[in-house]
Amino acid sequence: MTAQIIDGKAVSVKCLDKIAAEVAKRTAENKRPPCLAVILVGDNPASHVYVRNKKNACEKVGFRSLSYEKSADFSEAELLALINELNNDDTVDGILVQLPVPDHIDSQKIIERIRPDKDVDGFHPYNIGRLAVKMPLMRPCTPKGVMTMLAEYGIDVKGKNVTIVGQSNIVGRPQALEMLMNRATITVCHTATKDLPAEVGRADIVVAAVGRPNCIKGEWIKDGAVVIDVGINRLENGKLCGDVEFATAREKASYITPVPGGVGPMTIASLLENTLEAAKLHDK
Ligand code: GUN
Predict the structure, then answer these.
(1) Which residues of the chain have pLDDT under 70?
(2) Which of 93, 117, 119, 121 is catalytic?
(3) Would you say 241 and 214 are in contact if contact means Cβ atoms under 8 Å apart?
(4) For residue 47, how far is its CA from the centre of ligand 1 (angstroms)?
């Protein structure tokens, strides 16, 4: 079997078009455009690219965006004070602090300072907790984007065996909660997992979120499985690749996401959806 490619870029364009139409409707109703504040501390080159992409996407759909680019010596206290200011600014709907932050800043403290109704990343324990009890408010962007993409391709997760490789707060854990909310049977793998190839081999749907190039081997994939690759790894030759060995996995899977052009664009689409949702909350 040669898998059909899941075109995340195309799905994201569709999401962005829908958001832009809603922004135009808001303008016609004399409502303000949604506003996202993006904060970047330090000079991580990948973070600069991600933040630029987020700002460009805001512009495309007609959002207002505020950008705070601070040097690596910006203190934790200064960052908390900036978040306080944005929390209290009624014209700001969403606040995003790009991760990772420099070592002298406690990222969990930062995440917990953002008001949950402005936490468009969905990382605040309040938002993770709401997702855990099937009453989501702000849903973490990458796992949400994966669910949107699967739905767009008519792939129902209900009753499926889903193996998630990776247990991060950003992807693996909230992805498990998203899948469980949609009645999948979930397995979450990590470095203490005894037999990773066997866990992957049982899966109807595999979500790889490890951050190590080609670490999920194509030969592990069950015939006809759906493969979602969240990894974005830069190789020494400058090329991007995922966590899954793409060419061999494609010969086993029914559907597979490419890197780039798969999950990546969906993360941004979800961020904009969350910001629009936050603006709607703040209308009232
Ligand atoms: N770093 C890697 N992924 C993300 C994300 O989704 N949001 C933020 N804020 N930082 C990240």
Answers:
(1) none
(2) 121
(3) yes
(4) 8
